[in-house]
Design brief:
Chain lengths: ~90, ~375, ~260
């Protein structure tokens, strides 16, 4: 759903998180995807996997919203990593 | 009777195993339970029984300093810090070497604080995908009710659900837990917690417990401090009471001798102590709770009460409820101790496993989004007649 | 009902007044009796007299000073309200015969009857349960509209009930037509606050939702239709006041739903 307002999300960040296997990266992507973004008009995130690497693409209306949004996703990624490390 | 064996145990086991994860408020709970697979014969049908066995019940509480409440962000951080460790410990305690033996992973879907709920569901989803074990989203309140029913064997009680975020009088009818009465503003636990904050008493082990202990120290039990009594049918309101008792406590601390309720107008001598306030507050609030419970019992013709939720372990509340029941024919009161009353993982596992055995597991991971508001009567209770 | 309560009542009443317990509500025990508290016995009368004796026993679970205050306050306010309401045209409430505030006792007119086919006493609750197999018949609709009108009249006259449930409405036939009576005014009050009316309506709506879940939407609609009709008949002033009450009703409802439910 690319709206007209999306053009205004000029503050972007790209992150890559390497996992041990492609399956693990897939799991991370599936875990992160369901949760809705509180203000989709201000912040947007896309998850994708290339082999064993999880790609995170953030777009935001300003750098403050970007920082808050990114750090919240990173907290979740940390939980996923810790869970995988412990129980794989 | 409902046959609970709609879905057979995985891996041809003769029992069901469920992991329960709770983190809707400041307690992080992990529980593991087992239900034996009970047969359905024409002559002895046991398929509606659970015969719950608790293999692990671990909890870690996020405790804040005196005078402070728990904020969503800090509580979520606490849960993230401990979640994996608690699951590991629970599996060890339960003696489960292969977690793929689990039939289901149950998590609290709501109601509760958004950030803490979310921090737990992230781990639940990861575990489910890693082990290929189906998820079940559980309503926190239904978890309390099912836990209480299984532990006390109360079959069809009127339920008084009293905790930090909820105050409800519930009775079952036609596959739903219907809410007959509830608070019109703040919850009882919230009221007690906030008063504890005003008094700056410790939040360890819990603010409500410390108020209960202080109330026991009241030496002036004949002279109750009069507080508003605000029952509205089967509903009640508590914010006015809190505001009033808070103002009394502040006057007491500030030595406001103009307050004639607290200080003798002639001599300026203090007439009321903090313990007296705690005692009066408890007496007043609990009388209201017992009254609305009795109203619901009379309305639905029931003689059993089950008290669940964190405030339910208050001994004085249990005593008052028992006293009310003695005056009703065949009246019975059921309550549990702090292991099961206070938020825990076992209750989520118990309600979740019942749901799972009736064939109601998550099909699409997109349906695992947690929600702050999730009313008790939204859940379809397939496991009861 | 525990024997202790029965014993306490018979000691209070002396053995000259025979009583028959009929129900134990949350705060009161209700008896029927053939004895009028002060009128001489009418030997000639063909029909046997029947009165309701409502007794609020001391509640041991609560602190004695809370108990005393509540019993006194509720018995007194119920008596006062019944006395006032029975003078208002169109309002159906039981007539007050006598009251003893300190002992928590009131005598009132007996209302209601047994429903056919063992469906119990003719409270609105039992009537609706009895009609559950055919919930949408005209008779149910008419009864609920009339109940709504009674509540509308009550509010229009600046009174609130405080505990509106389907147990607290009794039906009585008059020339083969069911007429609703509001009972149990222990939590009632004379009030000009729109908030009290909003809460009254919310409490009723919730009681219908939980007790008659399957048909609650329709039932509440019929109740509110009768309720609004009372205000509509009062022209402009009525419309304005109705708007205020309904607005507050909606606010109370939202407060209930919006409330965060943490823990």
């Amino acid at each position: 759903m690319k709206g007209a307002r999306e053009n205004q999300l000029l503050h972007v960040l790209h992150l890559e998180v390497p996992f041990e296997t492609a399956q693990q990266a897939q799991i991370a992507s599936k875990v992160l995807t369901p949760d809705p973004i509180l203000k989709p008009q201000d912040f947007h995130v896309q998850y994708s996997c290339k082999h064993s690497v999880l790609h995170l693409d953030f777009e935001s209306i300003d750098d403050r919203v970007l920082r808050v949004g990114v750090s919240s996703v990173i907290e979740s990624v940390k939980t996923i990593l810790e869970t995988i490390d412990e129980f794989k | 009777m409902v046959n609970l064996n709609k879905v057979p145990p995985r891996h041809r086991k003769q029992y069901y195993l469920a992991l329960g994860l709770e983190g809707s408020a400041n307690k992080l709970g992990v529980g593991i339970i087992k239900h034996p697979l009970l047969p359905q014969h024409a002559d002895s049908d046991l398929s509606h029984h659970c015969e719950l066995q608790i293999l692990a019940n671990i909890r870690d509480t996020y405790v804040t300093p005196p005078g402070e409440g728990f904020l969503p962000r800090d509580t979520a951080r606490h849960h993230r810090n401990w979640a994996v460790r608690l699951v590991k410990k629970a599996l060890q305690e339960a003696g489960i070497k292969d977690p793929t033996d689990l039939d289901t992973i149950c998590f609290t879907q709501g109601p509760g604080m958004g950030a803490p709920l979310h921090s737990v569901v992230v781990m639940a989803r990861t575990l489910s995908l890693l082990w290929d074990v189906p998820l079940v989203g559980v309503n926190h309140c239904v978890g309390h009710i099912e836990m209480g029913r299984e532990i006390t064997k109360a079959e069809n009680p009127v339920v008084l659900y009293v905790s930090g975020g909820n105050t409800q009088v519930i009775a079952y009818s036609e596959n739903r837990y219907r809410i007959f009465g509830e608070t019109l503003d703040i919850a009882i636990g919230n009221c007690l917690d906030r008063f504890a904050r005003t008094l700056k008493i410790p939040n360890e082990p819990s603010p409500g417990y410390n108020i209960e202990q202080l109330a026991l120290k009241c030496t002036n039990k004949d002279q109750l401090v009069e507080l508003p009594y605000t029952v509205k049918g089967m509903d009640l309101s508590m914010s006015g009471i809190l505001g009033y008792v808070d103002s009394l406590a502040k006057d007491l601390f500030n030595k406001n001798t103009k307050n004639k309720l607290l200080f003798d107008p002639q001599t300026g001598q203090q007439l009321v102590t903090v313990a007296d306030l705690c005692y009066s507050l408890q007496e007043n609030l609990f009388a209201m709770l017992v009254e609305i419970t009795e109203r619901a019992m009379a309305h639905v013709n029931s003689n059993q009460v089950l008290i669940v939720g964190g405030v339910g372990c208050n001994v004085r509340l249990q005593e008052m409820m028992a006293s009310m029941c003695r005056d009703r024919s065949n009246g019975q009161v059921h309550a549990t101790d702090e292991r099961f009353c206070i938020d825990n993982g076992v209750m989520i596992a118990q309600a979740g496993l019942l749901q799972y055995r009736m064939g109601d597991a998550v099909q699409d991971i997109a349906d695992t989004v947690v929600t702050q508001k999730f009313r008790t009567d939204e859940v379809y209770v397939a496991w009861r007649e | 009902m525990s024997g202790q309560i029965l014993e306490a009542v018979s000691i209070y009443l002396t053995p000259n007044i025979p009583i028959e317990p009929i129900s134990q509500g949350a705060e009161a025990v209700v008896f029927t009796t053939s004895v009028h508290p002060y009128e001489p016995k009418q030997e000639s009368s063909e029909t046997s007299n029947k009165y309701i004796l409502k007794y609020r026993p001391p509640k041991k679970y609560r602190h004695p000073s809370i108990d005393k205050a509540l019993t006194k306050h509720r018995t007194l306010s119920e008596s006062r309200i019944l006395a006032k309401l029975s003078q208002l045209p169109g309002l159906n409430v039981p007539k007050l015969i006598a009251c003893d505030v300190y002992n928590g006792c009131i005598w009132i007119e007996f209302l209601g009857e047994e429903l056919p086919n063992g469906n119990g006493f003719s409270s609105l609750k039992n009537f609706l349960w009895m009609s559950a197999s055919d919930p949408h018949n005209k008779c149910v609709e008419t009864v609920l509209e009339k109940v709504g009108r009674q509540i509308g009249l009550l509010h229009w006259n600046e009174y609130c009930h405080g505990d509106l449930t389907t147990s607290n409405v009794v039906l009585q036939q008059s020339d083969g037509v069911w007429e609703p009576y509001l009972i149990d005014f222990g939590l009632g009050s004379a009030t000009t606050f729109v908030e009290d009316k909003g809460v009254d309506l919310y409490v009723l709506e919730r009681a219908v939702d939980s007790t008659h879940s399957r048909y609650a939407v329709t039932y509440n609609e019929w109740l509110m239709r009768g309720y609004k009709a009372v205000y509509h008949e009062q022209s402009k002033k009525g419309e304005n006041r109705l708007r205020e009450v309904l607005k507050r009703f909606e606010e109370v409802r939202l407060r209930g739903r919006k409330r965060s439910m943490i823990g």
